[in-house]
Amino acid sequence: TIHQKGPLAGKPFLAINCGELSETLLESQLFGHRKGAFTGAIDDHDGVFQAADGGTLFLDEISEIPLPLQVKFLRAIQEKEVTPLGSTRPVRVDVRIIAATNRDIEGVLRSGTFRTDLFYRLNVVPIHLPPLRERREDIPLLAERFIEEFSRIYGVEPKRITAEAMERIC
After folding, report:
1. How confident is the model at residue 1 (pLDDT cuts 50, 70, 90)?
2. What is the SS3 assignment for 18?
3. Alpha-carbon distances of 39 from 25, 68, 138, 139, rounded to whole Å
4. What is the pLDDT of residue 33?
5. Strands 56-60 and 96-100, sheet pairing
6. How far apart are CA 111 and CA 80, in angstroms?
7. What is the dihedral sign for C-alpha 22, 23, 29, 33?
């Protein structure tokens, strides 16, 4: 269990994978849409920016956002407002954004498929987390943590990993 303290404790935390949705669906998921905005839009829908208002929005695979949608995304960050599809009225939002990608972001910037201005707007506090294969010393700690967590969830006595098994895992 993560114990939250501070001004965002108890506020919304939403996550979305930007690489698993088509451009239109991603735009709708991010910014929302109004009834009739497109085929199948039978009701108004608040996007994740509105749903996370006052809290945090985690955007995984941020480098997968299509270039045309990046302009609207940048505006949402700069102006702190979103305009749902099919609407002419912007909606104010106050959202902390955490963005992640597993791609070489420098290469993506050089290729021109990710806007430099959007990158610099998002890259306020960069955190580079090397892959687990480059920090094998963390594996025993993570394994023990998961064993404890899932043993508690399932109400069973925690299991132990033998030294030989841990060596093979690492």
Report:
1. very low
2. coil
3. 12, 21, 48, 48
4. 79
5. parallel
6. 28
7. negative
Tokens of 8: 């965002």
Q: How far lies 53's CA from each of 12, 69, 91, in Å? A: 7, 20, 10
How many CB atoms lie under 10 A from the CB of residue 88?
A: 7
What's the predicted TM-score (pTM) here? 0.74
**CB under 8 Å to 62, separation ≥6 — which residues?**
18, 99, 100, 101, 122
CB-based contact 55:96 (threshold 8 Å): yes
Cα separation, 151 vs 154, in Å, equals: 5
Residue 93's CB is within 10 A of a number of other CB atoms, namely 22
Following CA atoms 113, 116, 122, 128 in sequence, which dihedral angle do they give, to the nearest 10 degrees? 80
**Six-digit token string for 49:** 């920016």
Tell me the H-state helices in the chain: 23-31, 48-51, 67-79, 105-111, 116-122, 139-154, 163-169
Rg for the chain (alpha carbons), in Å?
20
Q: How many CB atoms lie within 10 A of CB 112?
A: 9
Give residues with Cβ within 8 angstroms of 107, minimum separation 6. none
